[in-house]
Known about the structure:
The structure holds 2 protein chains of 2 kinds. Chain A is an all-alpha fold. In chain A, 92% of the residues lie in helices and 0% in strands. Chain A has one domain.
Amino acid sequence: xxxxxINPLVLPDIGLVFWNTIAFLILLVVLGKFAWKPMLKAIxxxxxxxxxxxxxxxxxxxxxxxxxxxxxxxxxxxxxxRATLIKxxxxxxxxxxxxAKEKAKSEYDRILADAQLAITQQKxxxxxxxxxxxxxxxxxxxxxxLRKELSNKADQESYIKQLxxxxxxx
Amino acid sequence: xxxxRIKTLLVASFSFLAMxxxxxxxxxxxxxxxxxxxxxxxxxxxxxxxxxxxxxxxxEEKAFNVTETILEHIKDDxxxxxxxxxxxxxxxxxxxxxxxxxxxxxxxxxxxxxxIVYTGKFDYKLVEGKxxxxxxxxxxxxxxxxxLIDISxxxxxxxxxxxxxxxxxxxxxxxxxxxxxxxxxxxKGLQSFxxxxxxxxxxxxxxxxxxxxxxxxxxxxxxxxxFLILTNNFLGLIPFFPGGANVSGNIAFxxxxxxxxxxxxxxxxxxxxxxxxxxxxGMHWSMKLFLAPIELIGxxxxxxSLMIRLFANITAGHILVLSLICIIFIFxxxxxxxIAVPFAVFIGMIECLVAFLQAxxxxxxxxxxxxxxxxxxxxxxxxxxxx
Lengths: 170, 387
Protein backbone atom coordinates (compact mmCIF):
# COMPACT_ATOMS: atom_id res chain seq x y z
CA UNK A 1 0.00 0.00 0.00
CA UNK A 2 2.94 2.26 0.74
CA UNK A 3 4.29 2.09 -2.80
CA UNK A 4 0.83 2.54 -4.25
CA UNK A 5 0.43 5.70 -2.21
CA ILE A 6 3.74 7.22 -3.03
CA ASN A 7 3.62 6.82 -6.78
CA PRO A 8 0.79 8.20 -8.88
CA LEU A 9 1.91 6.06 -11.81
CA VAL A 10 0.48 2.89 -10.32
CA LEU A 11 -2.79 4.46 -9.19
CA PRO A 12 -5.44 3.91 -11.86
CA ASP A 13 -7.69 6.91 -12.45
CA ILE A 14 -11.35 6.05 -12.33
CA GLY A 15 -12.05 8.26 -15.33
CA LEU A 16 -9.40 6.52 -17.43
CA VAL A 17 -10.70 3.11 -16.45
CA PHE A 18 -14.19 4.25 -17.39
CA TRP A 19 -13.24 5.58 -20.84
CA ASN A 20 -10.88 2.68 -21.51
CA THR A 21 -13.63 0.20 -20.80
CA ILE A 22 -16.07 2.05 -23.04
CA ALA A 23 -13.52 2.33 -25.85
CA PHE A 24 -12.58 -1.32 -25.57
CA LEU A 25 -16.18 -2.52 -25.55
CA ILE A 26 -17.05 -0.31 -28.54
CA LEU A 27 -14.04 -1.69 -30.41
CA LEU A 28 -14.88 -5.25 -29.45
CA VAL A 29 -18.50 -4.96 -30.55
CA VAL A 30 -18.00 -2.92 -33.71
CA LEU A 31 -14.89 -4.74 -34.91
CA GLY A 32 -16.33 -8.09 -33.88
CA LYS A 33 -19.41 -7.51 -35.96
CA PHE A 34 -18.08 -5.53 -38.92
CA ALA A 35 -14.39 -6.41 -39.17
CA TRP A 36 -13.31 -9.64 -37.54
CA LYS A 37 -16.34 -11.65 -38.55
CA PRO A 38 -16.24 -10.84 -42.28
CA MET A 39 -12.43 -10.94 -42.36
CA LEU A 40 -12.12 -14.29 -40.65
CA LYS A 41 -14.98 -15.66 -42.67
CA ALA A 42 -13.41 -14.45 -45.91
CA ILE A 43 -10.06 -15.91 -44.91
CA UNK A 44 -11.66 -19.20 -43.95
CA UNK A 45 -13.61 -19.21 -47.21
CA UNK A 46 -10.48 -18.57 -49.18
CA UNK A 47 -8.62 -21.27 -47.31
CA UNK A 48 -11.35 -23.80 -47.89
CA UNK A 49 -11.47 -22.68 -51.52
CA UNK A 50 -7.75 -23.21 -51.91
CA UNK A 51 -7.98 -26.55 -50.17
CA UNK A 52 -10.83 -27.58 -52.43
CA UNK A 53 -8.94 -26.42 -55.50
CA UNK A 54 -5.89 -28.40 -54.41
CA UNK A 55 -8.00 -31.48 -53.81
CA UNK A 56 -9.64 -30.97 -57.17
CA UNK A 57 -6.26 -30.58 -58.82
CA UNK A 58 -5.09 -33.79 -57.20
CA UNK A 59 -8.18 -35.55 -58.38
CA UNK A 60 -7.70 -34.20 -61.88
CA UNK A 61 -4.10 -35.30 -61.82
CA UNK A 62 -5.15 -38.79 -60.83
CA UNK A 63 -7.77 -38.76 -63.53
CA UNK A 64 -5.27 -37.62 -66.12
CA UNK A 65 -2.84 -40.29 -64.97
CA UNK A 66 -5.59 -42.90 -65.23
CA UNK A 67 -6.44 -41.64 -68.70
CA UNK A 68 -2.82 -41.80 -69.71
CA UNK A 69 -2.60 -45.34 -68.45
CA UNK A 70 -5.68 -46.20 -70.39
CA UNK A 71 -4.26 -44.58 -73.49
CA UNK A 72 -1.04 -46.43 -73.07
CA UNK A 73 -2.90 -49.69 -72.63
CA UNK A 74 -4.91 -48.95 -75.73
CA UNK A 75 -1.78 -48.10 -77.64
CA UNK A 76 -0.09 -51.26 -76.49
CA UNK A 77 -3.10 -53.26 -77.49
CA UNK A 78 -3.20 -51.60 -80.87
CA UNK A 79 0.48 -52.23 -81.31
CA UNK A 80 0.00 -55.84 -80.42
CA UNK A 81 -2.86 -56.12 -82.80
CA ARG A 82 -0.86 -54.55 -85.54
CA ALA A 83 2.00 -56.93 -84.84
CA THR A 84 -0.31 -59.93 -85.00
CA LEU A 85 -1.90 -58.58 -88.14
CA ILE A 86 1.44 -58.10 -89.77
CA LYS A 87 2.52 -61.51 -88.63
CA UNK A 88 -0.62 -63.09 -89.97
CA UNK A 89 -0.30 -61.26 -93.26
CA UNK A 90 3.30 -62.30 -93.52
CA UNK A 91 2.39 -65.85 -92.76
CA UNK A 92 -0.38 -65.72 -95.32
CA UNK A 93 1.90 -64.26 -97.96
CA UNK A 94 4.64 -66.73 -97.11
CA UNK A 95 2.15 -69.50 -97.40
CA UNK A 96 0.92 -68.13 -100.68
CA UNK A 97 4.43 -67.84 -102.02
CA UNK A 98 5.26 -71.33 -100.79
CA UNK A 99 2.06 -72.67 -102.25
CA ALA A 100 2.73 -70.93 -105.53
CA LYS A 101 6.26 -72.24 -105.54
CA GLU A 102 5.07 -75.73 -104.84
CA LYS A 103 2.40 -75.45 -107.41
CA ALA A 104 4.85 -74.11 -109.95
CA LYS A 105 7.26 -76.86 -109.11
CA SER A 106 4.64 -79.55 -109.47
CA GLU A 107 3.50 -77.96 -112.71
CA TYR A 108 7.07 -77.88 -113.94
CA ASP A 109 7.54 -81.46 -112.88
CA ARG A 110 4.34 -82.39 -114.62
CA ILE A 111 5.32 -80.44 -117.77
CA LEU A 112 8.75 -81.96 -117.67
CA ALA A 113 7.30 -85.41 -117.30
CA ASP A 114 4.83 -84.73 -120.07
CA ALA A 115 7.60 -83.41 -122.29
CA GLN A 116 9.76 -86.40 -121.55
CA LEU A 117 6.85 -88.64 -122.23
CA ALA A 118 6.10 -86.83 -125.48
CA ILE A 119 9.75 -86.91 -126.45
CA THR A 120 9.93 -90.62 -125.74
CA GLN A 121 6.77 -91.23 -127.63
CA GLN A 122 7.92 -89.15 -130.58
CA LYS A 123 11.30 -90.78 -130.45
CA UNK A 124 9.64 -94.16 -130.41
CA UNK A 125 7.33 -93.06 -133.20
CA UNK A 126 10.28 -91.71 -135.16
CA UNK A 127 12.24 -94.91 -134.60
CA UNK A 128 9.21 -96.92 -135.65
CA UNK A 129 8.85 -94.78 -138.74
CA UNK A 130 12.55 -95.10 -139.49
CA UNK A 131 12.25 -98.82 -139.03
CA UNK A 132 9.24 -98.86 -141.32
CA UNK A 133 10.99 -96.71 -143.94
CA UNK A 134 14.12 -98.80 -143.66
CA UNK A 135 11.93 -101.85 -144.19
CA UNK A 136 10.26 -100.20 -147.16
CA UNK A 137 13.58 -99.11 -148.55
CA UNK A 138 15.01 -102.52 -148.01
CA UNK A 139 12.05 -104.01 -149.79
CA UNK A 140 12.40 -101.42 -152.63
CA UNK A 141 16.11 -102.01 -152.84
CA UNK A 142 15.61 -105.68 -152.71
CA UNK A 143 13.01 -105.41 -155.46
CA UNK A 144 15.30 -103.30 -157.66
CA UNK A 145 18.24 -105.58 -156.92
CA LEU A 146 16.21 -108.54 -157.79
CA ARG A 147 15.11 -106.95 -161.07
CA LYS A 148 18.65 -105.97 -162.00
CA GLU A 149 20.15 -109.29 -161.05
CA LEU A 150 18.02 -110.84 -163.42
CA SER A 151 19.54 -108.92 -166.37
CA ASN A 152 23.28 -108.58 -165.71
CA LYS A 153 25.38 -109.99 -163.14
CA ALA A 154 28.15 -107.50 -163.27
CA ASP A 155 25.84 -104.72 -163.62
CA GLN A 156 23.92 -106.17 -160.83
CA GLU A 157 26.79 -106.04 -158.54
CA SER A 158 27.87 -102.53 -159.48
CA TYR A 159 24.32 -101.41 -159.18
CA ILE A 160 23.96 -102.95 -155.78
CA LYS A 161 27.17 -101.24 -154.80
CA GLN A 162 25.84 -98.00 -156.25
CA LEU A 163 22.61 -98.42 -154.39
CA UNK A 164 24.36 -99.30 -151.21
CA UNK A 165 26.35 -96.13 -151.53
CA UNK A 166 23.20 -94.15 -152.13
CA UNK A 167 21.46 -95.49 -149.05
CA UNK A 168 22.44 -93.53 -146.06
CA UNK A 169 21.02 -94.41 -142.81
CA UNK A 170 20.29 -91.37 -141.01
CA UNK B 1 14.21 -16.00 -26.48
CA UNK B 2 16.47 -15.86 -23.44
CA UNK B 3 17.74 -12.49 -24.66
CA UNK B 4 14.19 -11.16 -24.62
CA ARG B 5 13.57 -12.55 -21.17
CA ILE B 6 16.67 -10.87 -19.80
CA LYS B 7 15.64 -7.66 -21.49
CA THR B 8 12.15 -7.83 -20.04
CA LEU B 9 13.63 -8.48 -16.64
CA LEU B 10 15.96 -5.52 -16.97
CA VAL B 11 13.16 -3.23 -18.08
CA ALA B 12 10.92 -4.39 -15.29
CA SER B 13 13.58 -3.92 -12.64
CA PHE B 14 14.50 -0.54 -14.05
CA SER B 15 10.94 0.63 -13.98
CA PHE B 16 10.54 -0.62 -10.44
CA LEU B 17 13.66 1.27 -9.43
CA ALA B 18 12.39 4.36 -11.18
CA MET B 19 9.12 4.15 -9.32
CA UNK B 20 10.82 3.63 -5.99
CA UNK B 21 13.31 6.43 -6.52
CA UNK B 22 10.87 8.94 -7.92
CA UNK B 23 9.31 9.64 -4.55
CA UNK B 24 12.44 10.82 -2.71
CA UNK B 25 13.32 12.87 -5.78
CA UNK B 26 9.89 14.48 -5.79
CA UNK B 27 10.35 15.26 -2.14
CA UNK B 28 13.73 16.85 -2.67
CA UNK B 29 12.33 18.89 -5.52
CA UNK B 30 9.92 20.53 -3.10
CA UNK B 31 12.82 21.44 -0.91
CA UNK B 32 14.64 22.96 -3.87
CA UNK B 33 11.55 24.95 -4.74
CA UNK B 34 11.31 26.33 -1.24
CA UNK B 35 14.95 27.31 -1.32
CA UNK B 36 14.61 29.06 -4.63
CA UNK B 37 11.56 30.88 -3.35
CA UNK B 38 13.45 32.38 -0.47
CA UNK B 39 16.16 33.73 -2.74
CA UNK B 40 13.84 34.81 -5.54
CA UNK B 41 14.07 38.48 -6.53
CA UNK B 42 11.60 38.51 -9.34
CA UNK B 43 10.25 42.04 -9.47
CA UNK B 44 7.48 41.17 -11.84
CA UNK B 45 6.01 38.62 -9.51
CA UNK B 46 6.26 40.87 -6.45
CA UNK B 47 2.86 42.33 -7.20
CA UNK B 48 1.22 38.96 -7.66
CA UNK B 49 -0.37 37.04 -4.88
CA UNK B 50 1.76 34.97 -2.62
CA UNK B 51 0.71 31.77 -4.27
CA UNK B 52 1.25 32.87 -7.86
CA UNK B 53 4.55 34.34 -6.81
CA UNK B 54 5.49 31.02 -5.39
CA UNK B 55 4.55 29.20 -8.57
CA UNK B 56 6.04 31.67 -11.06
CA UNK B 57 9.27 31.94 -9.17
CA UNK B 58 9.70 28.21 -9.01
CA UNK B 59 8.77 27.97 -12.68
CA GLU B 60 11.45 30.38 -13.76
CA GLU B 61 14.23 29.75 -11.36
CA LYS B 62 14.13 26.18 -10.24
CA ALA B 63 16.83 23.86 -11.49
CA PHE B 64 15.96 21.44 -14.27
CA ASN B 65 14.29 18.50 -12.61
CA VAL B 66 14.69 15.22 -14.50
CA THR B 67 12.21 13.19 -12.49
CA GLU B 68 9.53 15.81 -12.75
CA THR B 69 10.03 16.25 -16.49
CA ILE B 70 9.90 12.54 -17.15
CA LEU B 71 6.91 11.93 -14.94
CA GLU B 72 5.13 14.86 -16.54
CA HIS B 73 5.53 13.18 -19.91
CA ILE B 74 4.45 9.81 -18.68
CA LYS B 75 1.50 10.84 -16.55
CA ASP B 76 -1.95 11.67 -17.78
CA ASP B 77 -2.92 15.32 -18.18
CA UNK B 78 -6.11 17.36 -18.43
CA UNK B 79 -4.83 19.21 -21.48
CA UNK B 80 -2.76 18.06 -24.45
CA UNK B 81 0.47 20.00 -24.70
CA UNK B 82 1.60 20.07 -28.36
CA UNK B 83 4.68 22.30 -28.45
CA UNK B 84 5.85 25.58 -26.96
CA UNK B 85 2.81 27.42 -25.68
CA UNK B 86 0.35 25.55 -27.88
CA UNK B 87 -1.92 23.40 -25.81
CA UNK B 88 -5.13 21.68 -26.81
CA UNK B 89 -7.76 22.18 -24.14
CA UNK B 90 -9.78 19.06 -23.41
CA UNK B 91 -13.20 18.83 -21.80
CA UNK B 92 -13.31 18.26 -18.07
CA UNK B 93 -16.29 16.13 -17.00
CA UNK B 94 -16.93 15.78 -13.31
CA UNK B 95 -19.58 13.94 -11.40
CA UNK B 96 -20.03 15.69 -8.11
CA UNK B 97 -22.50 15.28 -5.31
CA UNK B 98 -24.57 17.99 -7.05
CA UNK B 99 -24.64 16.45 -10.52
CA UNK B 100 -22.37 16.74 -13.54
CA UNK B 101 -20.02 19.64 -14.14
CA UNK B 102 -18.52 20.11 -17.61
CA UNK B 103 -16.02 22.80 -18.63
CA UNK B 104 -12.85 23.29 -20.66
CA UNK B 105 -9.52 22.41 -19.15
CA UNK B 106 -8.19 25.80 -20.36
CA UNK B 107 -10.04 27.35 -17.44
CA UNK B 108 -7.92 25.43 -14.96
CA UNK B 109 -4.64 27.14 -15.89
CA UNK B 110 -3.54 30.74 -16.32
CA UNK B 111 -1.49 32.09 -19.23
CA UNK B 112 1.69 30.72 -17.63
CA UNK B 113 0.25 27.21 -17.49
CA UNK B 114 0.05 27.38 -13.74
CA UNK B 115 -3.01 25.91 -12.05
CA ILE B 116 -5.72 28.36 -10.94
CA VAL B 117 -9.02 27.88 -9.20
CA TYR B 118 -12.07 27.42 -11.40
CA THR B 119 -15.48 27.78 -9.85
CA GLY B 120 -18.24 25.58 -11.17
CA LYS B 121 -20.53 23.79 -8.80
CA PHE B 122 -17.49 23.69 -6.52
CA ASP B 123 -14.08 25.32 -6.57
CA TYR B 124 -11.74 23.12 -8.63
CA LYS B 125 -7.99 23.25 -8.86
CA LEU B 126 -5.28 21.02 -10.31
CA VAL B 127 -3.13 19.62 -7.54
CA GLU B 128 -0.12 17.68 -8.86
CA GLY B 129 -1.91 17.11 -12.13
CA LYS B 130 -5.05 15.78 -10.52
CA UNK B 131 -8.27 17.76 -10.27
CA UNK B 132 -9.39 18.38 -6.69
CA UNK B 133 -12.14 20.35 -4.99
CA UNK B 134 -10.59 23.09 -2.89
CA UNK B 135 -12.16 25.18 -0.18
CA UNK B 136 -12.07 28.94 0.09
CA UNK B 137 -8.58 28.90 1.61
CA UNK B 138 -7.23 27.01 -1.44
CA UNK B 139 -6.63 23.80 0.48
CA UNK B 140 -7.85 20.40 -0.76
CA UNK B 141 -11.28 19.59 0.63
CA UNK B 142 -10.96 15.89 1.41
CA UNK B 143 -14.59 15.48 2.41
CA UNK B 144 -15.99 16.92 -0.85
CA UNK B 145 -13.44 15.01 -2.96
CA UNK B 146 -14.87 11.70 -1.77
CA UNK B 147 -17.95 12.35 -3.92
CA LEU B 148 -15.97 13.64 -6.88
CA ILE B 149 -15.66 11.33 -9.87
CA ASP B 150 -13.38 12.69 -12.59
CA ILE B 151 -14.34 11.25 -15.98
CA SER B 152 -12.69 14.00 -18.02
CA UNK B 153 -11.49 13.48 -21.56
CA UNK B 154 -7.85 13.63 -20.60
CA UNK B 155 -4.81 13.38 -22.85
CA UNK B 156 -4.79 9.60 -22.52
CA UNK B 157 -8.51 9.30 -23.23
CA UNK B 158 -8.19 11.54 -26.29
CA UNK B 159 -5.23 9.52 -27.51
CA UNK B 160 -7.17 6.34 -26.87
CA UNK B 161 -10.01 7.68 -28.97
CA UNK B 162 -7.55 8.51 -31.73
CA UNK B 163 -6.28 4.96 -31.63
CA UNK B 164 -9.84 3.63 -31.65
CA UNK B 165 -10.58 5.69 -34.75
CA UNK B 166 -7.40 4.50 -36.43
CA UNK B 167 -8.22 0.87 -35.69
CA UNK B 168 -11.81 1.26 -36.81
CA UNK B 169 -10.74 3.02 -39.99
CA UNK B 170 -8.13 0.42 -40.87
CA UNK B 171 -10.16 -2.67 -40.15
CA UNK B 172 -13.52 -1.55 -41.40
CA UNK B 173 -11.76 -0.61 -44.64
CA UNK B 174 -9.89 -3.89 -44.75
CA UNK B 175 -13.05 -5.87 -44.05
CA UNK B 176 -14.93 -3.92 -46.71
CA UNK B 177 -12.34 -4.79 -49.34
CA UNK B 178 -13.11 -8.49 -48.80
CA UNK B 179 -16.63 -7.77 -49.88
CA UNK B 180 -15.42 -5.74 -52.84
CA UNK B 181 -12.75 -8.04 -54.20
CA UNK B 182 -14.27 -11.31 -53.10
CA UNK B 183 -12.48 -14.08 -51.33
CA UNK B 184 -10.82 -15.71 -54.30
CA UNK B 185 -8.61 -12.80 -55.32
CA UNK B 186 -5.37 -11.93 -53.55
CA UNK B 187 -5.62 -9.23 -50.83
CA LYS B 188 -4.74 -5.66 -51.81
CA GLY B 189 -3.62 -2.49 -50.03
CA LEU B 190 -4.55 -2.21 -46.35
CA GLN B 191 -6.12 -5.60 -46.55
CA SER B 192 -2.90 -7.25 -47.65
CA PHE B 193 -1.00 -5.50 -44.86
CA UNK B 194 -3.44 -6.48 -42.12
CA UNK B 195 -4.33 -9.96 -43.22
CA UNK B 196 -0.94 -11.52 -42.34
CA UNK B 197 -1.13 -9.98 -38.85
CA UNK B 198 -4.67 -11.27 -38.35
CA UNK B 199 -3.51 -14.66 -39.62
CA UNK B 200 -0.52 -14.47 -37.29
CA UNK B 201 -2.84 -13.92 -34.31
CA UNK B 202 -5.02 -16.77 -35.46
CA UNK B 203 -2.39 -19.32 -36.48
CA UNK B 204 0.39 -18.57 -34.01
CA UNK B 205 -1.48 -17.36 -30.95
CA UNK B 206 -5.06 -18.62 -30.90
CA UNK B 207 -4.94 -22.05 -32.51
CA UNK B 208 -1.81 -23.44 -30.79
CA UNK B 209 -2.93 -22.24 -27.36
CA UNK B 210 -6.68 -22.73 -27.44
CA UNK B 211 -7.01 -25.53 -29.95
CA UNK B 212 -8.67 -25.84 -33.32
CA UNK B 213 -12.06 -26.72 -31.88
CA UNK B 214 -12.66 -23.71 -29.67
CA UNK B 215 -10.45 -20.90 -30.89
CA UNK B 216 -13.02 -19.28 -33.20
CA UNK B 217 -15.17 -18.05 -30.31
CA UNK B 218 -12.27 -16.08 -28.80
CA UNK B 219 -10.80 -14.67 -31.99
CA UNK B 220 -12.64 -11.29 -31.86
CA UNK B 221 -11.49 -10.72 -28.28
CA UNK B 222 -7.88 -11.69 -28.98
CA UNK B 223 -7.69 -9.63 -32.15
CA UNK B 224 -9.19 -6.57 -30.48
CA UNK B 225 -6.81 -6.86 -27.54
CA UNK B 226 -3.82 -7.37 -29.82
CA PHE B 227 -4.51 -4.46 -32.14
CA LEU B 228 -5.58 -2.09 -29.36
CA ILE B 229 -2.32 -2.71 -27.50
CA LEU B 230 -0.25 -2.60 -30.68
CA THR B 231 -1.77 0.64 -31.91
CA ASN B 232 -1.43 2.36 -28.55
CA ASN B 233 2.13 1.11 -28.14
CA PHE B 234 3.11 2.61 -31.47
CA LEU B 235 1.13 5.80 -30.89
CA GLY B 236 2.95 6.17 -27.60
CA LEU B 237 6.28 5.99 -29.43
CA ILE B 238 5.41 8.92 -31.68
CA PRO B 239 6.71 11.88 -29.71
CA PHE B 240 4.26 14.46 -31.10
CA PHE B 241 0.54 14.83 -31.73
CA PRO B 242 -1.49 12.60 -32.19
CA GLY B 243 0.91 10.30 -30.36
CA GLY B 244 2.88 11.11 -27.29
CA ALA B 245 0.32 10.06 -24.75
CA ASN B 246 1.34 7.09 -22.68
CA VAL B 247 -1.88 5.09 -22.98
CA SER B 248 -0.63 1.51 -22.96
CA GLY B 249 1.87 2.45 -20.26
CA ASN B 250 -0.94 3.62 -18.04
CA ILE B 251 -2.03 1.30 -15.28
CA ALA B 252 -5.71 2.08 -15.92
CA PHE B 253 -5.47 0.83 -19.50
CA UNK B 254 -3.64 -2.35 -18.63
CA UNK B 255 -5.90 -2.92 -15.64
CA UNK B 256 -8.98 -2.67 -17.83
CA UNK B 257 -7.52 -5.20 -20.27
CA UNK B 258 -6.48 -7.49 -17.43
CA UNK B 259 -9.98 -7.36 -15.95
CA UNK B 260 -11.44 -8.20 -19.37
CA UNK B 261 -9.04 -11.14 -19.66
CA UNK B 262 -9.98 -12.25 -16.14
CA UNK B 263 -13.68 -12.11 -17.00
CA UNK B 264 -13.30 -13.90 -20.33
CA UNK B 265 -11.03 -16.61 -18.93
CA UNK B 266 -13.16 -17.37 -15.91
CA UNK B 267 -16.52 -17.15 -17.66
CA UNK B 268 -15.38 -19.50 -20.40
CA UNK B 269 -13.72 -21.93 -18.00
CA UNK B 270 -15.09 -25.47 -17.95
CA UNK B 271 -15.58 -27.95 -15.13
CA UNK B 272 -12.20 -29.51 -15.70
CA UNK B 273 -10.48 -26.18 -15.02
CA UNK B 274 -12.26 -25.55 -11.75
CA UNK B 275 -11.60 -29.12 -10.69
CA UNK B 276 -7.90 -28.57 -11.26
CA UNK B 277 -8.04 -25.47 -9.13
CA UNK B 278 -10.07 -26.64 -6.15
CA UNK B 279 -9.48 -30.39 -6.11
CA UNK B 280 -6.45 -31.30 -8.19
CA UNK B 281 -7.02 -34.82 -9.52
CA GLY B 282 -4.40 -37.49 -9.06
CA MET B 283 -3.03 -36.07 -5.82
CA HIS B 284 -3.15 -37.12 -2.22
CA TRP B 285 -5.96 -35.35 -0.35
CA SER B 286 -3.53 -33.41 1.83
CA MET B 287 -1.75 -32.20 -1.28
CA LYS B 288 -5.10 -31.19 -2.74
CA LEU B 289 -5.83 -29.07 0.32
CA PHE B 290 -2.41 -27.51 0.01
CA LEU B 291 -2.70 -26.79 -3.72
CA ALA B 292 -6.21 -25.32 -3.72
CA PRO B 293 -5.33 -21.90 -2.24
CA ILE B 294 -2.21 -21.65 -4.42
CA GLU B 295 -4.18 -22.39 -7.54
CA LEU B 296 -6.87 -19.95 -6.44
CA ILE B 297 -4.29 -17.21 -6.04
CA GLY B 298 -3.04 -18.13 -9.50
CA UNK B 299 -6.42 -17.27 -10.94
CA UNK B 300 -5.81 -13.67 -9.88
CA UNK B 301 -2.07 -13.42 -10.38
CA UNK B 302 -2.33 -14.34 -14.06
CA UNK B 303 -4.25 -11.22 -15.12
CA UNK B 304 -2.32 -9.11 -12.61
CA SER B 305 0.95 -10.22 -14.18
CA LEU B 306 -0.47 -9.23 -17.57
CA MET B 307 -1.40 -5.82 -16.21
CA ILE B 308 2.00 -5.14 -14.64
CA ARG B 309 4.04 -6.55 -17.51
CA LEU B 310 2.51 -4.30 -20.14
CA PHE B 311 2.45 -1.24 -17.89
CA ALA B 312 6.04 -1.67 -16.74
CA ASN B 313 7.47 -2.43 -20.17
CA ILE B 314 5.91 0.50 -21.93
CA THR B 315 6.46 2.97 -19.11
CA ALA B 316 10.05 1.83 -18.70
CA GLY B 317 10.66 2.35 -22.41
CA HIS B 318 9.31 5.88 -22.23
CA ILE B 319 11.39 6.61 -19.12
CA LEU B 320 14.51 5.31 -20.86
CA VAL B 321 14.06 7.48 -23.93
CA LEU B 322 13.16 10.54 -21.86
CA SER B 323 16.12 9.99 -19.54
CA LEU B 324 18.49 9.88 -22.49
CA ILE B 325 17.02 13.07 -23.91
CA CYS B 326 17.23 14.69 -20.45
CA ILE B 327 21.00 14.12 -20.46
CA ILE B 328 21.23 17.05 -22.86
CA PHE B 329 19.42 19.33 -20.42
CA ILE B 330 21.34 18.07 -17.42
CA PHE B 331 24.70 18.86 -19.01
CA UNK B 332 23.26 22.02 -20.59
CA UNK B 333 25.33 21.52 -23.70
CA UNK B 334 24.38 20.61 -27.25
CA UNK B 335 27.34 18.22 -27.42
CA UNK B 336 25.64 15.86 -25.01
CA UNK B 337 23.22 15.15 -27.80
CA UNK B 338 26.02 13.36 -29.66
CA ILE B 339 25.70 10.63 -27.08
CA ALA B 340 22.10 11.04 -26.04
CA VAL B 341 20.46 11.07 -29.47
CA PRO B 342 22.06 7.90 -30.89
CA PHE B 343 21.24 6.10 -27.67
CA ALA B 344 17.70 7.42 -27.74
CA VAL B 345 17.37 6.23 -31.34
CA PHE B 346 18.73 2.85 -30.35
CA ILE B 347 16.29 2.55 -27.46
CA GLY B 348 13.56 3.78 -29.79
CA MET B 349 14.36 0.89 -32.13
CA ILE B 350 14.14 -1.53 -29.24
CA GLU B 351 10.89 0.13 -28.21
CA CYS B 352 9.46 -0.60 -31.66
CA LEU B 353 10.30 -4.24 -31.06
CA VAL B 354 8.93 -4.07 -27.52
CA ALA B 355 5.73 -2.42 -28.79
CA PHE B 356 5.09 -5.42 -30.99
CA LEU B 357 6.47 -7.92 -28.52
CA GLN B 358 4.29 -6.76 -25.64
CA ALA B 359 1.16 -6.89 -27.76
CA UNK B 360 2.25 -10.38 -28.82
CA UNK B 361 3.01 -11.54 -25.30
CA UNK B 362 -0.18 -10.11 -23.86
CA UNK B 363 -2.28 -11.79 -26.53
CA UNK B 364 -0.35 -15.04 -26.39
CA UNK B 365 -0.69 -15.30 -22.60
CA UNK B 366 -4.36 -14.40 -22.85
CA UNK B 367 -4.82 -17.15 -25.40
CA UNK B 368 -2.86 -19.51 -23.18
CA UNK B 369 -5.01 -18.72 -20.14
CA UNK B 370 -8.16 -19.18 -22.21
CA UNK B 371 -6.72 -22.43 -23.51
CA UNK B 372 -6.00 -23.62 -19.98
CA UNK B 373 -9.51 -22.73 -18.88
CA UNK B 374 -11.02 -24.63 -21.82
CA UNK B 375 -8.76 -27.64 -21.69
CA UNK B 376 -10.49 -30.98 -21.94
CA UNK B 377 -9.51 -33.99 -19.84
CA UNK B 378 -5.86 -34.25 -19.14
CA UNK B 379 -5.06 -37.39 -21.07
CA UNK B 380 -6.65 -35.86 -24.13
CA UNK B 381 -4.42 -32.86 -23.80
CA UNK B 382 -1.39 -35.08 -23.39
CA UNK B 383 -2.43 -36.77 -26.60
CA UNK B 384 -2.90 -33.47 -28.35
CA UNK B 385 0.49 -32.22 -27.16
CA UNK B 386 2.03 -35.40 -28.45
CA UNK B 387 0.88 -34.86 -31.99
